[in-house]
């Protein structure tokens, strides 16, 4: 059942395929489309039980409402405050760890590498109580940097796996040649390896951005108020206030989904490259 | 970025600045609270009155988001204790008392005659014979009903004295015939079902049973406990279907629309009902019907409290303020603004609010006693297991034996005999 | 590791022996503080009974209970429910593999606009699980949710999945599968790109068709993609916290609890603050996850040696 290129099939089959594609897509995204439509439905429609019929109008005011009457804007800004430093921090740290693990053969190399990899898969719950307690003791509970520091540390695991494999695939002769000429290790990293890392940095940046933007668990554990809660946790608490106001819940959901979706579309190639690393050798 | 980075520091600095700027000669009392806007304004008005009467003291209130506060209090009591902190009476304050984080304020009670004026709240403020709380407000629970729904189903609207249990169940049959939910609730957060269970329990066996059950002293398989589930079972078929998947506000919408006739709820729901379009004309209140004849009527009235912390830097002035919060004058004012009931028997209630007057009436004549609500009378963990059992029974009454066995297992584990 | 032998010339205290540790230091430090050390602390804490409070002097108020928390887990019906639900998640989440593969094969064509189609199919994975949970909660809502109306029109009586203790977990898993299928699909799409066309042609000449073609020719070539897909699906199934928290809070009466949520509930929930007991649940979850992590590491180690 490996598909022949559709072009080689009969015209009828080609025709069916072209029709099937959009239908399949609509079915697949149906829940999302429903929410997008609901986010533009006037509140009066919902009150009258018109959930799925023709909307009586397009209600941009739902979006205006959540921006002016709820702190959703603040939540999104908070999300940026957590996400951007995490991307910078995790990518920087893992460039170094990845370099160390890819280029140097020291005895503990494989052990350290596997430790990063394993740590990446650990369930969050085993870290929860101590990390929360430590963040509290350091006075960083309910701050963007308390949350970002944890994310940097945790994401370093995944990023190290990625960077190390990426650097391993670079031609080692470059580094050898530089060493022969007496270039210091730091300068090899900075002037030879780093410039070649642009695709890896781009791929990891979009991935980490999406992961952190979408994080809900740690946002719940390490923040609690409007001043520092990111959008995921904020949306969850707004959901508690918007009982039965699905037009607002929908508008909030669409807003929360927008930045990672935009990021994905802008950086699609890098995103998929990052995600599927290891899927194909 | 800068303002966020230094947020915590800035806040501290601002507090210090304000202290030195306008309260140079004043002694400061700090108070952490979790008020919504209306109660907050009422509290600030009280502070103003208090400061006018005690010019040498300044009270600084730091307000938290209500949900966030539940978490925050666990941190600030240890790390950076204010002088005063809001919390709840009965078992809810026990962990903080046992960790030595709330201070004994028996002297405030003794010196201000609170044993008399706050008599109904003595048990819920006392742990091991000492008082740890100043109760300043509570609100009644009961049955709120929609007169329009009664009219639509052709059921006679209950009078001020309510209806009998048999009558209530008979009414339910009529509502069912008219496709109206007799009793509604939204139990996805669990606690609303505890209100229904508590009332059936209080009416079946009385206050002492409720109290013993919450304290793990009574077996779930005892005839008394079974009798409660028996009566709850009579109500079960008339409760809104799928209540387990909706919130209490969702159920309020069903109630407001007249698709449900009765709602066992606390008085705070009146605001939501009225927002939904109900008025004093079609919204009614009655006490839960008597079930076992002769059982003294007890009511549920969860109490909010203020506590002196063990880390208080200015306990003496804080106690002065606590005494003020216990006074009839302060409680009348705060509760009038918020729409709740004062705990001080000398305080007054707004006569124009039918629900407050009814609640005040119901509570002051509740000879059986005042319960705090299941999740405050029982320990947290036991409370949760219990509420899950109540919810399950209201969804799957046929699972009664399994539910009782599970509750009993939890009881024997938490309260080894 | 070919370069390893080149790099470790005579062991001397030179730049090349120090450099890796300098490069590793910041990352290792952060990872140690936030990941390794907390694991040890959690394991320790699981032998204590602690409500999360420190006393006035800032001292830990926990009480050592030995294996007490674990003994309690053995008889805890909520823990049992969580374990069973975790198993349901693990088994049903695997559906993401065949469905993801099917969609990938469906989309593996070169017609105009197919790139856009592929990205749109991938959409669900990009959005937050919080949003996915809200979307499905709306879809399942009693009385007006699409799913409710659908069942009502078919059976005459609407099904409120999230209020039904027997169905609720399946309802949440279905919501979780949506983004997971998208993820698996993209893994397989990339894998299909790398399937050697000449082998396919050769197989075709031998008369391989349909399922036989898929099973004997295509799937073996997709093994790396399948391996990653299994790993991420297992991890996804065991991490299922967000959806449970958003859609049901573990209800009705705890029927949709999973270990990750039950742990949170016990440690930080409104009626919880049993940090030690929560830690014990986390340790169990960690142990289960370790089985899969070890498998993954073992495979990686084998691959490393082959190089």
Task: Give a concise summary.
The complex is a heterotrimer of chains A (281), B (417) and C (307). Chain A contains 15 helices and no strands.
Strand and helix layout:
The complex is a heterotrimer of chains A (281), B (417) and C (307).
Chain A lengths: L10 H18 L1 H9 L4 H5 L13 H9 L2 H32 L5 H13 L3 H13 L6 H25 L3 H9 L4 H12 L1 H17 L2 H6 L8 H11 L4 H21 L1 H8 L6
Chain B lengths: L1 H4 L1 H16 L4 E7 L3 H17 L3 E7 L2 H14 L4 E5 L5 H5 L7 H6 L2 H4 L4 H4 E2 L2 E2 L2 E5 L2 E6 H7 L11 H13 L3 E4 L6 H15 L1 H8 L8 H13 L12 H9 L3 E7 L2 H7 L7 E4 L11 E3 L2 E6 L6 H12 L1 H11 L15 H11 L4 E3 L2 H4 L2 H16 L4 H15 L3
Helix pairs in contact in B: 3-17, 11-12, 11-13, 11-20, 14-15, 20-21
Chain C lengths: L1 H6 L7 H31 L2 E2 L13 E2 L3 H7 L2 H17 L2 H12 L6 H13 L2 H12 L5 H10 L12 H26 L3 H9 L4 H12 L1 H16 L3 H6 L11 H10 L6 H32 L1
Antiparallel strand pairs in C: 1-2
Protein traits:
heterotrimer, B: 417 residues, alpha/beta, D-Maltodextrin-Binding Protein, domain 2, five-stranded mixed β-sheet, 21 helices, 15% strand, disordered N terminus, C: 307 residues, MetI-like fold, two-stranded antiparallel ribbon, 15 helices, globular
């Amino acid at each position: 059942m490996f598909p022949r290129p559709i072009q080689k099939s009969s015209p009828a089959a080609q025709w069916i395929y072209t029709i099937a594609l959009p239908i399949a897509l609509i079915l697949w995204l149906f829940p999302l489309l429903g929410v997008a439509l609901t986010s533009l439905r006037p509140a009066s429609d919902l009150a009258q039980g018109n959930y799925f019929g023709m909307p009586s109008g397009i209600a941009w005011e739902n979006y205006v409402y959540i921006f002016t009457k709820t702190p959703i804007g603040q939540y999104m800004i908070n999300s940026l405050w957590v996400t951007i430093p995490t991307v910078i921090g995790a990518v920087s740290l893992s460039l170094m760890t990845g370099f160390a693990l890819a280029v140097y053969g020291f005895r503990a190399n494989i052990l350290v590498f596997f430790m990063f990899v394993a740590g990446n898969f650990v369930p969050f719950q085993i870290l929860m109580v101590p990390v929360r307690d430590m963040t509290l003791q350091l006075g960083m509970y309910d701050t963007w940097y308390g949350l970002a520091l944890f994310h940097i540390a945790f994401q370093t695991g995944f990023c190290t796996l990625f960077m190390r494999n990426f650097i391993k695939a670079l031609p080692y002769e470059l580094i050898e040649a530089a060493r022969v000429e007496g270039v210091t290790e730091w300068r090899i990293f900075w002037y030879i390896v780093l410039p070649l890392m642009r695709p890896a940095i781009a791929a990891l940046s979009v991935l980490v951005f999406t992961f952190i933007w979408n994080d809900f668990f740690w946002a719940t554990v390490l923040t609690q108020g409007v001043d520092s809660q990111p959008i995921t946790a904020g949306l969850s608490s707004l959901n508690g206030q918007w009982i039965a106001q699905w037009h607002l819940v929908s508008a909030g959901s669409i807003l929360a989904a927008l930045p990672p979706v935009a990021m994905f579309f802008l950086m699609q190639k890098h995103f998929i490259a990052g995600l599927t690393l290891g899927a194909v050798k | 970025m800068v303002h966020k980075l230094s947020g915590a520091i800035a806040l501290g600095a601002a507090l210090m600045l304000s202290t030195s700027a306008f309260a140079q000669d004043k002694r400061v009392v700090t108070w952490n609270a979790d008020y919504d806007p209306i109660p907050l304004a009422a509290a600030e008005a009280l502070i103003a009155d208090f400061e006018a009467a005690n010019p040498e003291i300044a009270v600084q209130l730091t307000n938290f988001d209500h949900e966030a506060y539940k978490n925050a209090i666990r941190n600030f009591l240890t790390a950076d204790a204010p002088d005063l902190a809001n919390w709840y009476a009965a078992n809810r304050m026990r962990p903080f008392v046992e960790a030595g984080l709330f201070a004994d304020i028996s002297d405030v009670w003794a010196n201000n005659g609170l044993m008399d004026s706050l008599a109904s709240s003595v048990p819920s403020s006392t742990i091991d014979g000492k008082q740890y709380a100043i109760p300043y407000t509570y609100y009644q629970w009961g049955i709120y009903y929609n007169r329009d729904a009664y009219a639509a189903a052709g059921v006679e609207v209950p009078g001020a004295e309510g209806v009998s249990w048999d009558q209530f169940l008979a009414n339910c049959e009529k509502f069912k015939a008219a496709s109206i939910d007799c009793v509604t609730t939204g139990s996805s957060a669990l606690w609303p079902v505890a209100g229904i269970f508590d009332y059936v329990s209080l009416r079946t066996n009385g206050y002492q049973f409720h109290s013993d059950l919450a304290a793990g002293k009574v077996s779930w398989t005892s005839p008394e406990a079974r009798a409660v589930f028996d009566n709850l079972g009579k109500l079960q078929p008339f409760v809104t279907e799928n209540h387990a998947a909706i919130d209490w506000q969702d159920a309020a919408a069903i109630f407001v629309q007249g698709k449900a006739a009765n709602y066992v709820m606390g008085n705070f729901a009146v605001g939501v009902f009225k927002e939904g379009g109900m008025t004093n004309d079609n919204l009614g209140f009655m006490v839960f019907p008597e079930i076992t004849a002769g059982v003294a009527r007890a009511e549920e009235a969860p109490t909010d409290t203020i506590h002196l912390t063990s880390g208080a830097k200015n306990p003496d002035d804080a106690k002065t303020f606590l005494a003020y919060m216990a006074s009839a004058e302060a409680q009348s004012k705060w509760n009038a603004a918020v729409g709740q009931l004062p705990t001080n028997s000398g305080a007054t209630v707004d006569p124009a609010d039918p629900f407050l007057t009814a609640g005040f009436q119901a509570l002051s004549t509740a000879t059986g006693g005042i319960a705090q609500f299941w999740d405050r009378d029982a320990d947290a963990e036991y409370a949760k297991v219990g509420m899950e059992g109540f919810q399950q029974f209201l969804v799957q009454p046929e699972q009664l034996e399994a539910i009782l066995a599970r509750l009993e297992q939890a009881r024997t584990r938490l309260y080894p005999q | 590791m070919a370069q390893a032998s080149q790099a470790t010339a005579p062991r001397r205290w030179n730049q090349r022996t120090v450099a890796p540790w300098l490069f590793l230091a910041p990352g290792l430090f952060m990872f140690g503080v936030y990941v390794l050390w907390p694991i040890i602390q959690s394991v320790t804490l699981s032998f204590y009974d602690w409500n999360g409070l420190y006393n006035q002097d800032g001292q830990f108020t926990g009480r050592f209970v030995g294996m007490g928390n674990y003994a309690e887990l053995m008889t805890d019906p909520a823990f049992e429910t969580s374990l069973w639900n975790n198993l349901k998640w693990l088994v049903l989440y695997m559906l993401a593999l065949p469905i993801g593969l099917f969609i990938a094969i469906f989309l593996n064509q070169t017609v105009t606009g197919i790139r856009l189609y592929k990205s749109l199919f991938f959409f669900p994975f990009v959005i937050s699980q919080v949003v996915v949970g809200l979307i499905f909660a709306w879809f399942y809502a009693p009385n007006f949710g699409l799913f409710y109306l659908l069942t009502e029109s078919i059976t005459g009586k609407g099904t409120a999945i999230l209020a039904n203790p027997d169905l609720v977990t399946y309802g949440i898993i279905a919501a979780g599968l949506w983004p997971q299928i998208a993820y698996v699909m993209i893994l397989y799409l990339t894998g299909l790109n790398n399937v050697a066309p000449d082998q396919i042609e050769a197989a075709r000449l031998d008369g391989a068709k349909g399922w036989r073609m898929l099973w004997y020719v295509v799937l073996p070539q997709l093994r790396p993609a399948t391996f990653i897909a299994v790993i991420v699906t297992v991890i996804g199934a065991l991490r299922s916290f967000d959806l449970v928290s958003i859609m049901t809070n573990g209800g009705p009466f705890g029927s949709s609890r999973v270990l990750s949520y039950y742990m949170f509930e016990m440690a930080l929930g409104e009626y919880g603050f049993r940090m030690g007991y929560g830690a014990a649940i986390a340790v169990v979850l960690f142990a289960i996850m370790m089985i899969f992590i070890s498998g993954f590491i073992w495979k990686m180690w084998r691959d490393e040696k082959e190089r």
